[in-house]
Amino acid sequence: MLLLITSATLPLAIISVSISWNKYNESLEAPKNEAFRQAQEALVTVTRDINQTQRAAEFFSKYPYDPSFSHNFFQMLDQASNGNFCLISIFDAEGQIVFSEKTVKKNQCAYINPSTLPNDRPNFIDEGQNIIQVDNNIFVSNTIKFKKDDFRKYYIKIYRNITNDLFTSNNTHYYFISRKNKSLNESIDYISPIISETESLKVKKLIEEGIEKKNIIQKYDSLYLQKVLGNTWMLTTNYWGEQKRTSQYILLFDISLIFGVIAIELMIIAVCSREYLVEPLEYLALAVAQWRNGAEFSPNRKNDVPLEVRQLERAFLRATRHLKLRETELKNAAQRQEHLIHEIHHRVKNNLQVIASLLNLHANQIKSPEVQGEFRRVRDRVQALSSLHHHLYDNPELTTLRANIFIPEIAQNVLMSHGPASTAHIDIKLDIDDVLIPQSQSVPVTLIITEILSNSLRYAFPSNQRGIICISLKKQETTNGESRVLLTLSDDGVGIASEKNSQPNQQPLSGIGRQLIRGFARQLRAELIIRHDTGTIYSLSFALDPVEPTPSALAERVLNS
Fold first, then answer.
1. Whose CB has fewer CB within 10 Å in the chain, the N or C terminal residue?
2. What is the C-alpha to C-alpha distance for residues 379 and 438, in angstroms, rounded to an integer?
3. Nearest to 190 by CA among 205, 170, 176
4. Do residues 184 and 203 lie in contact, with contact meaning Cβ atoms separated by under 8 Å?
5. Smallest Cα–Cα separation from 385: which of 428, 420, 425, 414?
6. CATH 3.30.565.10 domain range(s) in the chain
7. Within the chain, how many helices (H) and strands (E) appear?
8. Rounded CA separation 529/542 (Å)
């Protein structure tokens, strides 16, 4: 059940994780493009400040040189720009300072010192725009050549601090690389402590190739290189490693939250399922098992059992009552059938006894000894069958007979039917195993024993000769698991004579008795062997038929299946 619930919630978890992953990727894409956006804004700012400086220098160069005018002009620029115009200087052609004035406001302009200007003379007398970076301060300079009244060449150079105009943060920085008066290696070395060696090599290669603009994405920062002046490039760096780690923490938190919520839901579902579904079903299964063992079916008495389980219990309760009623009817029907079978055997036994008595009465009225003997032989057979049905009537198993009980009785009845003379000089020895003879084979076995025993009593011991008749029934060992028995009847009498030399007091080799023995042997599918070395020996080996269950046993088997 938990597997089914987990499978149902798995798509929701996958969708949630996918959304969190997309948000994570979006949060990483934003800082990657931030360097490009800020670089474009910085380019606009630098261009604007360069143009303002250019216009200020051009405006100043149109008027004749006058120190008082120069002072007033610079004060006007200083006030208008809130001190961003740091320095104005006028040089002659030899680079000597003719006029110089610095803003009085204490700001980033402190890095611009007129006394240091001649040390970098070529940088200060070249015409055009230039960008100077001192530590974290960025200055735009503009140099214009003009002539005074003495027709000499002069240069005006105006410095403007644009650091405050550029948007900076803890993660964003700007670096200007110039090839105008410095070698590329010197400019790159200036920023090497800021960026990695690999990044420095990439920047150097791009500048050497003359790339106008290029976005360089690294693992934890973004670099954007673009050209701002003829020989000057601006490198914008945006470090977003901290934001990446924050995004990773957020992603990890979101995934943990998703699976945590799912785990809590599964725990709640498991507890509720155990309380309201598994335990009621286990109780129902236990009640069914107890019912199968014969106990009454007892439904769950709790009030919080789910309606579906309660309906299932009610349906099963109705089914058990119906089945119990049907079981009772089936058992009663089986008992009635067994009672009828007992009654049939009883009535058959009584009828056979009546027939045997009638045969005995008719035999007593017949004067011919041969005919009287035939009547008595038929009577013995009928009495044997009557004894068989008597055992079937008394046997509760109905479908089998115990050989060690009914064979001795049959032998004793046959011996008694031949009169006191036979019982006086003939002994019967029995060696019978406790074997269950199926009802289907009990009639042939009884008639074979009766027929052979009658023949021995009649022909084997003439002139009241003493003798012994042995009856043996033994189990046989088989390799295929088949149940086989060996029935042996032997006497130590005169033996069987051939038909040609047959005497009145000897057993004939043919006749109705022998035909009956052979016929019943075929019915048993038995191997019949007759030997007459000393006396007569009959051996029959046959397989026992499968025992058919009684009606009650069959009904019980059906009910327990």
1. C
2. 25
3. 176
4. no
5. 414
6. 385-552
7. 14, 16
8. 12
For β-strands 467-476 and 128-134, DSSP reports them as: unpaired
Dihedrals phi, psi of 282, to nearest 5 degrees:
-65, -40
By the 10 Å C-beta count (0-12 exposed, 13-18 middle, 19+ buried), 106 is classed as exposed
* Residue 496: strand pairing partners: 507
Q: Are 404 and 436 in contact (CB under 8 A)?
A: no
d(CA 233, CA 218): 19
Three-state secondary structure call for residue 173: strand
Per-residue pLDDT of the chain (561 residues; tens, 9 = 90+): 556 666 666 777 777 777 877 776 766 666 666 667 777 777 887 788 778 777 777 777 777 667 777 777 777 777 766 667 777 777 777 777 777 777 655 555 655 555 444 334 434 445 667 777 666 677 777 777 776 665 667 777 777 777 666 655 666 777 777 765 454 555 555 555 566 667 777 777 777 777 777 777 665 567 778 777 777 777 777 766 666 677 777 878 888 888 888 888 878 878 887 777 778 888 888 888 887 777 777 777 777 777 777 888 888 888 888 888 888 888 888 778 777 877 887 888 888 888 888 888 888 888 888 887 778 778 888 888 888 777 777 776 767 888 898 899 888 888 888 777 677 888 999 999 999 888 888 888 988 998 898 888 888 888 788 899 999 999 988 777 788 999 999 998 887 653 334 444 444 444 677 888 899 899 999 999 988 877 899 999 999 988 777 777 666 776 666
Three-state secondary structure call for residue 129: strand
* DSSP classification of residue 56: H
417's CB contacts (< 8 A; 6+ apart) are 376, 379, 380, 383
Residue 384 CB burial class (10 angstroms; 0-12, 13-18, ≥19): buried
Residue 38: which of 221, 168, 203, 170 has the closest Cα?
168
Q: Comparing C-alpha atoms, which of 46, 48, 31, 30 is closest to residue 226?
A: 46
The amino acid at residue 558 is: V
* Superfamily name and number for 385-552: Histidine kinase-like ATPase, C-terminal domain (3.30.565.10)
CB 454 within 8 Å of CB 377: yes
What is the identity of the amino acid at 541? S
